[in-house]
Amino acid sequence: MMTLGSTPRSSSFLAGARYTRALAKLSERGESQTAQGHVLRSQLEDLWYEIPEEEQDLLDSLSADLRSLVEQPPPGPEPTEQEKIDLAAAVSDASWTEVLALLRECPRLSQGVDGAQLRAQCWRAVGVIGVIFTLQLAISDGLGTPEILQQLGDELVAALKQGTARLHAHDCVAATQGLGDRALDYMHQIILAEDNHAPIGSDAVERAITKLQIAAVAFTTQLVIAEGRDPAPLRRIEEKLVAAFEVYDKVQVGL
Amino acid sequence: MAPTWRKLPFFLIPERLNGKVPKARGDDRLRVWRHGEGAFADGSINAQLALSRTTAKHGDVEPASRTLLGDYQTALAATKNDWEWDEA
């Protein structure tokens, strides 16, 4: 069982990670060669030489990994025994940047849900909390199966329970605007059910939770993209989500 | 400057090159150029200019000695024909 902490990072690095994700999002929409994209590049250049080389390397890697989510690289050859040993050793040593590099060089070392989760855990361990959700969201958008989505939901609950979703006040507006109607609808269903003392675990709520797990990943992505202090309204929704999932977990265990 | 164009920051490598370097997210109007074949190390580029390495992946082209800004710019401009377009 791996125990992962998260390396504290400078505000410049976290801003760089945010700009990198924003640029990746623009690329996905085919809008990276626009004035908005050029502003992000300029912001990255302004902070680039303020951050240590190790963090520069991380942002370079982040850019490559984000691309691999939307343009899957060729799987490449089967990993050699040495590569498998190297991966196991890197995981054992908690050398997360090394794990990321190995997965990038040889995607077949760990594929599918396992690979996505390992990569997400690595990014979390090196201090880029939000990426875990970006990685998972991409999977749920493009490659999702019910089993994968279930795992995404579990991961989301764990992250929410750890209180890792935070917001800058000024990013709150952007994050709120970025929330999909779908996500808000499902959250409102849960909150309404709870406010009306409807039993969590009933068929209607259970169906909503399943959908909610998908929507909540999108929602939380927006939260963590902002990465900062929590505004009360969104924190309330987050608390409701956690409460709903906790009850749901108990019901599931009880079954 | 960087030792090779693949080691430039991801936002300075034109995005059209992402088939070769997946991290590339730079402005596609940019081109990547190479100067010389020497090692990426502190030292003279010519009589007027010198490379000063700041990290293993970044260096500045500086005046070889204290000089006027105009002369520095002229020295830089004089290298124009020595640069090769290199995106291979």
Structural account:
The complex is a heterodimer of chains A (255) and B (88). Residues 1-5, 140-144, 159-182, 221-231 and 245-255 of chain A have low confidence and may be disordered. By secondary structure, chain A is an all-alpha fold. Helices cover 73% and strands 0% of the residues of chain A. Chain A folds into two domains: 1-143, no CATH class; 145-255, no CATH class. A three-stranded antiparallel beta sheet of chain B has the order 2-3-4. Chain B has a two-stranded antiparallel ribbon with strand order 1-5. Chain B has one helix at 69-77; strands spanning 33-35, 43-44, 49-55, 58-63, 83-85. With 88 residues, chain B is of the alpha+beta class. Chain B is elongated and about 40 Å long. Chain B starts with 32 loop residues before the first strand and ends with a strand. Chain B has one helix and five strands; from the N terminus they run ββββαβ. Classes of the chains: A mainly alpha (255), B alpha+beta (88).
Topology overview:
The complex is a heterodimer of chains A (255) and B (88).
Chain A: H1 11-28, H2 35-48, H3 53-70, H4 81-92, H5 96-105, H6 112-125, H7 131-142, H8 146-161, H9 169-178, H10 181-195, H11 203-226, H12 232-254
Chain B: E1 33-35, E2 43-44, E3 49-55, E4 58-63, H1 69-77, E5 83-85
Antiparallel strand pairs in B: 1-5, 2-3, 3-4
> How many structural domains can be distinguished in the coordinates of chain B?
1
Low-confidence stretches of chain A: 1-5, 140-144, 159-182, 221-231, 245-255
**Portion in strands of chain A:** under 5%
Cα shape of chain A? globular
Helix content of chain B: 10-25%
Low-confidence stretches of chain B: none
Secondary-structure element string of chain A: HHHHHHHHHHHH
Helices and strands of chain B, in order, run as: EEEEHE
Structural class of chain A: mainly alpha
Oligomer: heterodimer
Name the helicity range of chain A.
over 70%
Coarse shape of chain B:
elongated
Average predicted confidence as pLDDT of chain A: 66
